[in-house]
Amino acid sequence: QVQLQESGPGLVKPSQTLPLTCTVSGGSITTKYHYWTWIRQPPGKGLEWMGAIAYSGSTYYSPSLKSRTSISRDTSKNQFTLQLSSVTPEDTAVYYCARGSGSVEEYKYWGQGTQVTVSS
Q: How far apart are CA 39 and CA 50, in angstroms?
């Protein structure tokens, strides 16, 4: 059974960079042909796909966030990370890591989510 767990700061100041890590257990992030994604849900809004890193290490980003987003991985720790730069209060959301591609509503494996608030 694949399990994912997000970790990172719960509070970030505006203009700073938000770093989040997803630790995966029960499966390798290099296993073909899985994609490891970051998704967020701002308060009162729907799910927003932010980006993904493939089993191969290739990365994909939402066009609306591409200039501020970086996704990487540490295969030795079976982790992948998100860095979101120049955050504003509009980046306040619950951030999830998940495994899947295509429609986020069809993803089977999710982390529990971590609340991130951007505030001074």
A: 5
- 45 and 96 Cβ atoms separated by less than 8 Å: no
Q: How far apart are CA 72 and CA 23, in angstroms?
A: 12
Burial 30-63 (b: 16+ CB within 10 A, else e): eeeebbbbbbbeeeeeebbbbbbbbeeeebebee
Under 8 Å between Cβ of 3 and 26: yes
The residue length of the chain stands at 120
pLDDT digit string (tens) for 17-68?
999 999 999 999 999 999 999 999 999 999 999 999 999 999 999 999 999 9
Q: For 1-90, where are the E strands, in sequence order? A: 3-7, 11-12, 18-25, 35-41, 48-54, 59-61, 69-74, 79-84
Chain centre to alpha carbon of residue 49:
9
